[in-house]
Amino acid sequence: MKEKVEEILSQVLDFQAESKEALENFRITYLSKKGIIPALFADFKTVAPELRKEMGMKLNELKNVVQDKVDEQLQKFESQGSSEAGFDMSMPANEMRGARHPLSIVRRDINEIFAHLGFTIVEGPEIEDDYHVFSALNFPIDHPARDMQDTFFINKEPNVNKMSDILLRTHTSSVQVRAMENSQPPIRVIAPGRVFRNEAISARAHCIFHQIEGLYIDENVSFADLKQTLYHFVQEFFGEGTKVRFRPSYFPFTETSAEMDISCNICGGKGCNICKHTGWVEILGCGMCDPNILLSSGIDPEKYSGFAFGMGVERIAMLKYGVTALYLL
Ligand code: PHE
Fold first, then answer.
1. Rg of the chain in Å (alpha carbons)
2. pLDDT digits (tens, 9 = 90+) for 190-241
3. What's the CATH code, domain 108-328?
């Protein structure tokens, strides 16, 4: 019997199941009630008493080896099972492509054009005080932009000096004020960022949008510099041959003020829905910094002059990509 057990042991030690079925057959052959190992245990009764200890150990060893084989190989088949179902964890992943948002692309491209002209990028807080958004920019105390209908207030104290109101900035011009407070000319900055206006949301407008503000202050800065800078920007961004025109406008903090239109790049100036059949679309507001604004920010208007401009990033992205609706409502 001893030889028989040893022979079986050497056979099972080399056993490798080719399939789950083969493993199950192996288990049945050795371990099932009518299998080889229970039969050996039954024969154990016939073993001479002096050999029983040794034989008992051998038999138990055989049983454990077979059981371990079965467990180990079953586990192997089960973990491979998923690959049979079509998964191969070692396969390279599907190519998942990310893409930049059109607004990010436009903001980056605009920043780059002005960076090449020597402008540096600055940022300011989205939660601002009335002073930096309105008062320092010469907005009269009863200007409609300060109204609850237009501005999101965070903290509006009744009967207290409005300058302490805390609000979400309605334009990036607040960053102009901070730039003038923090540095002396020459100042050449652009300030991209989110702005907030308490307006009805439509397909063409949202209460949160993006602007890019520009500010240039130095000695002898003229309106011609403003026009040339913006003209250069338009040629770079929309392509050579894009026409510009300046229309007189009004902003409390610039004098002279203008709005700039470009020839509609959707229809090439022939007239379409985007340009309302005029061939022109407005893209920004601009003007020469009002000397009073310079003065109140600590810059000598006798020595320095400057220009500022502010453009809407969504608007420019719509024109660039021919998008007619910002939001599907
Ligand atoms: N802040 C103005 C707006 O939001 C735009 C502007 C910026 C105009 C700078 C003049 C100079 O409409």
1. 40
2. 999 999 999 888 877 889 999 999 999 999 999 999 999 999 999 999 999 9
3. 3.30.930.10
